[in-house]
Amino acid sequence: MSLVNRDLVTVDDLSYGEMEAVFSLADEMSDSMAEQLNTCHGKVMACLFFEPSTRTRLSFEAAMHRLGGSVISVSDARASSVAKGESLADTARIVGSYADIIVIRHPWEGAARVVADYADVPVINAGDGGHQHPTQTLCDLYTLKKERKNIHGLKIALWGDLKYGRTIHSLIFALAKFGADMLFCPSPGLEVPDNIIRKLVAEYGGQVERVTTPERTTSGVPFPLDAVYMTPSSPHQLAMMPDVNIAVRLGKGVDALYVTRPQKERFVTTEEEQGLEGKYPVVDKQLLKGKRFERALVMHPLPRVDELAYDVDADPRSMYFKQAARGVPIRMALIALLLGARESPATVEEDVSAPTPEYPVYQRDYGARCPNPACVSTKESEAKYLKSEFRIVSREPLTLRCVYCEHGFQPEYIASSDWHEGRLDAKRYHRADSYWAKKIRPENLIVFGSVGDAEANGFKPGRHEGKKKARK
Ligand code: NCD
Questions:
Q1: Is the same domain home to 333 and 285?
Q2: Pocket perturbation via mutation, ligand 1, pick of 159, 167, 299, 323 by most ligand atoms within 8 A of CB
Q3: 290 close to 298: Cβ distance less than 8 angstroms
Q4: Angle CA(100)–CA(374)–CA(276) in degrees, nearest 5?
């Protein structure tokens, strides 16, 4: 499918074949940099960076300059009308009328989705809070491909802050799309969120198995392995003797170690910060002596703090500076494809992974709001016009996923618009795990964040609900 005028908000927006097309064009462009100056001549890219950035912003800007286009940018929210309380929707409409393409980085999860919904031009997410960072993932996959030819069947250890690292979240889904196995190696308390594990298994298949026995590497350094993901195509069946299989597969070593820094700016509790002291796993020369890392590429989206020692820089396995450098041809290819300045090179057949399921969508301007405080839909300037919008990803237990930040949650109270239509005394709410909940058709579903929320909207406890139970 053509990429012209499309948005890139999450890695789900690109199929396997489309990512391969970006890589193939990036190869071509890096071999002929000087010949690209007319590719996007006359086009304008707007860079809206409301969070700090070095690599992402500068490589996007360098990419557009190398394509012969020009760049307008905001790199400090305090210097734009956002500081006066302007909404993202208005910002998107305005900037979309000045530029041909928008790149946005924002601390709120789902911010890029809102900009994409309101701007008439293609929008690229350059990082939205702890949610996703799909173009970093393109650089990561491109590096794996360049160094190892084939991503399918690789074993990648994801290291450090797996809870708040947006590069990790995008990479998890992309690696699953390419058929790689993953080892989750978090700092204690910074494990992959359940939301992400649930989506991974439900939509990409495969299995996640928790690892309970603490591991040590052959060099004696602890290996913080918490869980393993194996793709459906993996020859090993985890369900059968998981520990034995994990040990066998680990014995063969990992292909890449993807290290991340603690994303302290997103920590919610002081315990998260305190829990790190002396516990955050460090990758250094000593760790890499372990047999398991013999042929492991050392990757990092950068910036690094203390988790990746400088003594690794000269090691030929270190890839992080190459990863950053490859950001320019990757972003050149992406911009050219979204602007229709280049056609998609024909690459491989379409997706190897299962297509994303079509979940029913829930949308209401009252009732439950997304419970994620970092979600764009909960912010004062945005809540005025954004309705609560969720995908109903499971009925048992009833589970909703916010369309903006993708946070999943299980509401406690529900009602049906069908049962009370026209009759006020029939406005009853029920517990979401009750018999009634299963009978409600998706289009009639109303979800409440609490009893107070249900009652403020004029609903009374259901007749079949123990009143005490419902009020708990
Ligand atoms: C990452 C980011 O901003 O999420 N940096 C980047 O874009 N290369 C990683 C980080 O900040 O730790």
A1: no
A2: 167
A3: no
A4: 115
- The answer on 110 and 192 residing in a single domain is no
Q: Which of 136, 162, 258, 299 to mutate to test the pocket of ligand 1 (most atoms within 8 A of CB)?
A: 136
Which of 133, 210, 203 is closest to 165 using CA atoms?
133
Residue pair 305/71 in contact (Cβ under 8 Å)? The answer is no
Identify whether 429 is part of a domain.
yes
Give the CATH number for residue 380: 2.30.30.20
Distance 172 CA to ligand 1 centre (A): 15
The count of other CB atoms within 10 Å of the CB of residue 345 is 15
Which residues constitute the domain of residue 274?
135-324
Evaluate if pTM is beyond 0.85.
yes
- Per DSSP, helices labelled H in 205-296 are 242-251, 270-274, 285-288
Give the atom of ligand 1 at the shortest distance from the alpha carbon of 166.
4
In tens digits, what is the pLDDT along the chain, a chain of 472 residues? 799 999 999 999 999 999 999 999 999 999 999 999 999 999 999 999 999 999 999 999 999 999 999 999 998 877 777 878 899 999 999 999 999 999 999 999 999 999 999 999 999 999 999 999 999 999 999 999 999 999 999 999 999 999 999 999 999 999 999 999 999 999 999 999 999 999 999 999 999 998 877 666 666 667 889 999 998 876 655 555 555 566 556 667 899 999 999 999 999 988 888 878 888 999 999 999 988 899 999 999 999 999 999 999 999 999 999 999 999 999 999 999 999 999 998 876 655 555 678 999 999 999 999 999 999 999 999 999 999 999 999 999 999 999 999 999 999 999 998 876 666 677 899 999 998 888 899 999 999 989 999 999 989 998 766 554 444 4
Place of tokens 């005025």: 384
